[in-house]
Amino acid sequence: MNVTGxxxxxxxxxxxxxxxxxEARTLTDRMFKPFEDLLVDAVSAAGAGYVLDVxxxxxxxxxxxxxxxxxxxxxxxxxxxxxxxxxxxxRAEREKEGARAVFIRADAQDHAFQPAAFDAIVSRFGVxxxxxxxxxxxxxxxxxxxxxxxxxxAWRATAENPFMTTxxxxxxxxxxxLPARQPDEPGQFAFADPDRVExxxxxxxxxxxxxxxxxxxxxxxxxxxxxxxxRFGPVGQALRDVDERTRGQVVETARAAFDPxxxxxxxxxxxxxxxxxxxxx
Length: 281
What we know:
Layout: H1 7-13, H2 16-23, H3 25-31, H4 33-46, E1 50-54, H5 60-69, E2 74-79, H6 82-94, E3 101-105, E4 118-124, H7 133-143, E5 144-155, H8 162-171, H9 194-203, E6 206-221, H10 225-231, H11 233-239, H12 244-257, E7 262-263, E8 266-280
Parallel strand pairs: 1-2, 1-4, 2-3, 4-5
Antiparallel strand pairs: 5-8, 6-8, 7-8
Helix pairs in contact: 2-6, 4-5, 8-12, 10-11
């Protein structure tokens, strides 16, 4: 779910973080299915034939696009995470989409894509990690055909996504070394400010920029809640280095903090995002 190959990000997404996303792909696929559907519907409605999926992760959106576009379409997924790309390739092979969904390990910020090749460039939460966002989107602009469409999803502010920071807020007293979220730095909420996103796209050569809020109801089984917050984010990272007693305290405290989102056998929350569109002109 990442695209930039600078040393820190590459190490992260080819280490435990990337492995966690690969192993939890069934959970994340279910959780983010509404957003996958949004991108697939938009691209198919636009009649795109050759599509690039940036930060493709384990390939759910790439393969879904290939399935929807059919024999006339072709989709390329790009990511820097070997563990996630291995899962993506296995997914494509299982679903018999391998001929139309291919995956490359590359840094989309500076990879030499074929110029003016893609009808559409999409991303489901994969473009917020670039070290130089203007350079990255300029590189993607060069890869798009004239008139080609850009459409991606990015998280809105943390205040609008309390579910996403529940574990770290609850665990902070027990894990005093948790890193603070830094606005505008590469990471999950780097594109929370729509004015910043618009500036980045305009400076990188995209036109007809359109940024709209979208809220989606996300659901997953309650029995996957603890595995979710102990694998991902700052808490998941911190738990790899603590003793069992501290881990137990964190799990108990964080799990209780999620009670408002638990409804019987399901966890339900609203995800607040931006759907961003632009055109290559």
